[in-house]
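Please check this record.
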Amino acid sequence: MSRVCRFASTRIRTWGMGLLSCALVAALTNILVCGRLWAVYLPGGQPCQAVPTVFPGKTPDTRNVAEHVLRQTRRHGKLTIEVNLSYPSLGYAIIDDEISRWTTSIFGVFEESLTNYPPDDEGDDASSEGQNYALQGTYTVSRPSDAAVSLTFELWTYTGGVHGNLDVITLNYSLLTGQRLELVDLFEELDEALSLMSKWSFQTLARRFASAWSLQALKDGTAPDADNFASLTLTPEGITINFQPYQAAPWAAGAQTVEMPLEELAAAKPLTAVWGR
């Protein structure tokens, strides 16, 4: 699998019978390919419903955040297709526009994957009346400081098979410039940052799971490779490292997170202004 398919915040894995191809995942890296979310129409001319609602603010971090929901249910032959994607707007036009188009691209990839299931498909996965294929997404908002915001999305897809697929994807932004903050923007010494995160994560997860997970699999999932640390949530204390299911633990254990204080990353020369320090 190419680096663009595996890297960073547009990675969607395809275990089981998921059919989001590498080419489609790569397309997510170009968030400019789609128009705004409320301009999207589904097959048959039915519009997606992007429903804006005021988000009441579960924590101080989420004040002033408006929540939007892309919601749609339709039939696709014998299948029921359900989409329920939540995404925020923050009151920063550049950032809000990018988030909207990124969400649209996620929906577009899911829709494209359904072309592999013709409406008259008589295969095993399409043979049961009432079976649902689904795309669901939720998010949380973290503000490491007044200078930055970190959005963590959990995307769940089901297109047949034993279980669905879950991806944890982060979008980090500077609130001063509207710039998307990638891993290379957060640390002057990227290799050192990867090394520090690798050691910290491996030690934390090894204690958490002991012998319940393959040691080699854990080493692979926490190796100092940018692909393994593509999903970072920025917090006031430092970072939360998000691992995908199967990356660092068995599916039954769920997606794993590891908290790492900013002080433990000092040798990597983090851009401390992002954390207001």
Notes: Helices lie at 3-6, 22-27, 93-113, 183-186, 190-209, 215-221. The longest strand covers residues 132-145. The radius of gyration is 19 Å. Residues 93-113 form the longest helix (21 residues).
